[in-house]
Write a structure and sequence with these properties.
By secondary structure, this protein is mainly β. It has one domain (19-106): Beta Barrel (OB fold (Dihydrolipoamide Acetyltransferase, E2P)), CATH 2.40.50.140. The protein has one helix and nine strands, in the order αβββββββββ. It has one helix at 15-19, and strands at 23-33, 41-46, 51-56, 72-76, 82-84, 87-89, 92-93, 95-96, 105-106. The strands form three sheets. A five-stranded antiparallel beta sheet has the order 3-2-1-4-7, with no helix packed on it. The radius of gyration is 15 Å and the shape is globular.
């Protein structure tokens, strides 16, 4: 396993601030290419009571981004919608490693849980 230079811990936040972040489990139903875009794919994610479109910059991190179809992962679902590449992303894939310059891995539950289950 590759060693990294561990980044300093970010400044302390209150528990009230942490409670505002809504992290939920969703199943990645589809991974779709976005025409003319090299780094970002469109994820269609099932959160139990609804689906969302979430854009994720994973296209160059994996040989086949579609390999994550059907997998559960963690997503931040209460970020303001963000327009990217002419599309709107309604959340953020919660992954591990990107900020540290290593090949990212999905943050996943250890066992199957209902879509929409909250983390924290």
């Amino acid at each position: 396993m590759k060693k990294i230079k561990v980044a300093p811990v970010k400044p302390t936040v209150s528990f009230n601030v942490f409670e505002k972040i809504d992290i939920r489990v969703g199943t990645i139903q589809r991974v779709e290419d976005i025409e003319g875009v090299d780094k970002v794919v469109r994820l269609i994610v099932d959160f139990g009571d609804h689906e969302r479109t979430i854009l994720a910059g994973i296209k160059q991190e994996r040989q086949d981004p579609k390999e994550i179809e059907g997998k559960q992962a963690l997503f931040v679902v209460n970020l303001e919608p963000r327009k990217m590449m002419g599309e709107v992303s309604d959340g953020m894939l919660f992954d591990i490693g990107y900020a540290d310059g290593i090949s990212p891995a999905l943050a996943v539950p250890e066992k199957q849980v209902p879509n929409g289950a909250r983390a924290g």
